[in-house]
Amino acid sequence: MTALDDRPGVSAAPAPPRTRRTTARLLTAALAAGLLVLVPVAAGTGAYPVPVGDVIGSLLHRTGLGGAELDRVAESVLWNVRFPRIVLALLVGASLGCAGALMQGVFGNPLAEPGVIGVSSGAAVGAVAAIAFGLNVLGTWTVSVLAFASGLVTVLVVYAMSRSGGRTEVVTLILTGIAVNAFAGALIGLFLFFADTAAVNQITFWQLGSLAQATWPKVLAVLPCAALGLGLAPLYARRLDLLALGERPARHLGVDVERLRIVLVLVIALLTAAAVSVAGVIGFVGLVVPHLLRMAAGPAHRFLIPGSALLGALVLLAADLAARTVAEPAELPLGVLTALLGSPFFFWLLRRTRRRQGGWA
Amino acid sequence: MRGLKLSRFAPSSRPVPPPPAAPGEVLAEAEGVGVHLGGRPVLDGVDVRVRAGELLALVGPNGAGKSTLLGALAADVPVAGGVVRVHGRPAPRWSAAELALRRAVLPQAASLSFPFAVEEVVRMGRAPWAGGDREGEDEAAVAEAMARTGVTGFAGRPFSALSGGERARVALARVLAQRAPLLLLDEPTAALDLRHQELVLRLCRERARAGDAVVVVLHDLALAAAYADRVAVLRAGRIAADGPPAEVFAEELLSEVYEQPVEVFPHPRTGALLVVPRRTP
């Protein structure tokens, strides 16, 4: 009981399951509606504004459902600049949100997040290595594959080092994260040292986290990873619920815990790598998003996993819209923006967990 | 629910539920079981049989190996020697899913990583039946288990906001909702007040009367004497005595096992067996 089992009322109100289920349905509808509104708005907003009506018209035209083609500039801005960026924001956001929800479930710990525990930096090591050394063995896939490999190794290391007696305690997890982040940072620094100036610029920019370099080929490079991860994750929702009881009780209820854990660690690495390989390290989305949803609709993973993907997509799309519009014509790095907003939340969460536990053991 | 259905593509086929057990059928047995934990022998040559229709209490001093024996019967703890059979088959040869239809386990301390509501926790007990023929029993099983353990009143509250005793009853409700023919309960009464201790053991006895095999680790010898059909006394990893309470609860044996003088005498009015430590005034 020294670990995270004493957290009275992490959900704000003691809502009975039925109300929670209704809340979940309403939230899903609201999130979907939010995306439907925000996508055309984001597509129309920027240095070259396009009215929302025209955006929808162009979309309908391209999908063969009517509408009308716009002039050449507008079409080009929309389809070569804005839409790849929006699709990438949605994919990255969904991957990060979903990876966060999965990771918290697997670790049984609401503070687990790919960025906090160092998995994002781990994936970044592979990506940076690919850029720094100009590796191109697998074409546009090189960065993704290397990010996946190093991300996977990192998840496994963190998992092995931060567990004892079938539980992951907060202190161990955070300290492991510090160590892993430090080591990954050192490796990235080392690669930077060996890289040429062009690669250094590319890496520095990429490390801040940004979607500014979005292109359709990049979308295609992450799509398989993200789609596979997002497709697999909901299949494990019920088993993740049972895992909240602890490993043994989950096994007593028929869950093959070892296999579940291995599969989910792979899925987490896949999703994190997908996000990191195109967008750099964008922290705290995976932490904040599942948390907000858990407060609103309870911890059942059947809603939490797809919900986190939806809200993650919405949050990242909004954040990217803000990043490219608040300081026009300059662009804020997206990772900096999410960290600015996410860190205080993380701090609050830490304080709260500490208070609930009566101090760290 | 949908997740489990889709994952039928996984190689493991749907586990087959056990046929109803005949009264007296051995649902779990340990034969010459030895268990080492951290290099130290915790159980040594333990033989015990758990029969359908019987409430078996495991008693003994701290560290005697009661919970370890329960863990071995639950197929949690790997055995170093001997064999544990569940429903006649060596425990390691069952899959987790098959075992989940055959035995339910109440752990000593109930914990939960996320603030699920009480009803959701109890419903988790139905997970082994998802997608099977008896999935239709879910609602009834959950409602009955909650009513029996008296937790219906706070069905909507988050588990993490409950007191220790309430948590223990919710955990028990989850185990009952699983409707497995073999129940393994590790100190189900530890966190409970007098009334709920009686309630829980009455429940156990009812389940035994209904044909299930129930194993309970108990510290309270008076409770064991009052409710168990059979008592196994453990001492230092071995069975010191095994039989009906009236036979096993002898003053010399208990005083020796617990290294504490014990008195056993009939209740002046009902004649029921009472076990109390001998205290000097």
From TrEMBL, chain B:
InterPro entries tied to this protein: AAA+_ATPase, ABC_transporter-like_ATP-bd, ABC_transporter-like_CS, P-loop_NTPase
Domain of life: Bacteria
Keyword Nucleotide-binding: yes
Keyword Coiled coil annotated: no
Keyword annotations: ATP-binding, Nucleotide-binding, Translocase, Transport
One term of GO molecular function: ATP binding
Residues covered by the ABC transporter domain: 28-261
Renumbered residue ranges of the record's region Disordered: 1-23
Protein name per the record: Heme ABC transporter ATP-binding protein
